[in-house]
Design goal:
Structural class of chain B: alpha/beta
Number of domains of chain B: 2
Shape of chain B: globular
Largest sheet of chain B: 6 strands, mixed
CATH architecture of the largest domain in chain B: 3-Layer(aba) Sandwich
Distance between the termini of chain A: 30 Å
Strand content of chain A: under 5%
Radius of gyration of chain B: 24 Å
Distance between the termini of chain B: 40 Å
CATH topology of the largest domain in chain B: Rossmann fold
Order of helices and strands of chain B: EEEHEHEHHHEHEHEEHEHEEEEHEH
Bound molecules: adenosine-5'-triphosphate, magnesium ion
Strand order of the largest sheet of chain B: 5-6-7-3-8-9
Strand content of chain B: 25-35%
Order of helices and strands of chain A: HHHEEHHHHHHHH
CATH superfamily of the largest domain in chain B: P-loop containing nucleotide triphosphate hydrolases
Number of domains of chain A: 1
Helix content of chain B: 25-40%
Helix content of chain A: over 70%
Largest interface: A-B, 29 and 38 residues
Number of strands of chain A: 2
Oligomer: heterodimer
Amino acid sequence: MPNNPPSFLTRVFAIWHRHVRVYNKFLLSNGLPPFLEPLIFLAGIGLGLGRYIPSMGGVSYVRFLASGLIITAAMWTASFECTFGTFIRMEFGKVYDGMLAAPISVRDMLISEILWAGTKGLFFSSAVLFIMFVFRVLPVSITVLVPFVGFLTGMMFGAISLFVTSFVRNIQYFNFFFTGFLTPMFFFSGVLFPVENLPKAVRPIAEIVPLTHSVRLSRALCNGVFTPDLVIDLLYIVAATFVFGYFAIKRLRRRLID
Amino acid sequence: MSDTRVIAVKNVRKSYGGFLAVNGLSFDVDKTECFGLLGPNGAGKTTMMKMIYGMAIRDPHSDGSISVFGYDPLYDELKIKNLCGVVPQEDNLDIELNVVENLDVFCRFYGMSKSATRDRIDYLLDLMELTDKRDSKIKALSGGMKRRLIIARALVNQPKLLILDEPTTGLDPQVRHVIWNKLRAMKKLDMTILLTTHYMEEAFQLCDRLIIMDGGKKMMEGNPQRLLKDNMEHYVLELKSAGSFGKVEGFLKETAANIGSTTEAATKEGVTDKAGNDEGAFGEAVNAETETDETETIEAETDEAASKKAVIRVEHMEEIVYVYSNDPEVLQKAVCLLKGEDYYLRQSNLEDLFLKTTGRALANAQ
Ligand SMILES: Nc1ncnc2c1ncn2[C@@H]1O[C@H](COP(=O)(O)OP(=O)(O)OP(=O)(O)O)[C@@H](O)[C@H]1O
Ligand SMILES: [Mg+2]
């Protein structure tokens, strides 16, 4: 009796496909905001704040901010997906229990969640980039690679968020993660101003938090200025994804399997 | 593997923080057999099933084992799940997808090709009579439709083993009978079925063999007809009030006395501890677990079956009194004495056996 369960990639992409399908069901409500948000940003910052701050980090302030916001768009969407989204799939809908009755392991399923978070990161940062192209804030050049950083950022925050979710028993607790971690990080990771401008005492914090490294990669691509230490940023992102992903899977397995 | 066992469970235990949900359970399920797990709420049925397809991990100890198609769920979870279909106790359809999408997504989980998926879905929707609900939202389905869809979903991979956890709970009789018929058809297709249910009729109709479990332990095992025949009086007289019982009590005592009462219980083999409280002729054998619930035994030897003693067993459940016996004539005579009082004389069924085995009163876990 031949009995060959589908391959690892088949399994992971089958679940990924399920997420894509659900997402595409509401194409208008899901697909429009990623484009609207950068438009609002351009209207608000470009016409308002941008006039008072002519340049930052050697480029126009609008352009400086744009290279950061491409990344935060990926961060937010990936984080929502793997906190609230995952929690609901796990606890309310019991969608995971359904999947786990098929030849799919907890590991397959969660790797797929991370991959999906990366996909959303890719899409959201592409949307921001597209608007920046249309309004000529960024040139069409090597900048087309920025969504790839969005993808990596999405995977990293997907993994971090899954890890957070593994501790959360009540959906309200995610607020601590968002207002206690992600929002403050937004201000100290070089999105709004270069981390070099931070007081000496705070600088190490900026180097520890994950967003800083993503922003640095994005900015390098947006400005076309590359330095060797970008390799460290890339390694940080890959390592954080694996480490948080590993522990998230370990902890969530215990929760999903009695 | 040359042996015909699909599932072999040996001395399996599962605890949740010190509480033993499954306590040393053993059973085997043969190929193409429909095997039932019966037992009150909290008996450990779902837990046992989950351990079989890897959704729960059994307690590690050396003499406990589970083998499904020769695979151990601890190590070959995916191989087992590849051969199984699972209908869980709680509906877990993907409410963000519609009917056909739910099936389609599942087909992908098994790595099925596009054309195989299309054919299989058409077949299953037809089988479960859901074709015209194809594009419905899950929320728009009735309970019965959801259940049928979950069964369809469990069948996408043409499983060799179908695991059904209370497949028909909450469904109306029509739907239930439809599902029974489908399951019988599945069995003919060489499918092995593991089933839990709280409907004794369902177990009786579908199961080739079953176990009755309680508190994580096996109380009884066998073919339902045989179990009933061997462990249960054939007839029951239900009396609606203690007053009615008063009218026949004398007669029953006398009858038992007339034909000679013995103190030995005749119907004990196979019935383990809890049910085995039929000692003493008409003695006040109070069920150890409960106070409202008492069992008395009146035993009598009939002429024609002197070897097999006829027993009259009386059980009180609040106001209602149950008189059990293998001898319909004795009960018939008792009925004559009732003179218009409410009664119900019937053949005993699996539910009576279930209650006899697991007790009538609620345990803490229920
Ligand atoms: N995840 C869990 N954590 C703690 N206790 C659990 C868990 N799952 C089950 N139990 C306990 O184990 C016992 C057996 O539960 P199980 O669900 O297997 O019973 P069951 O026979 O399926 O009951 P029912 O007929 O109500 O479905 C119950 O007492 C239940 O409270
Ligand atoms: Mg159950």
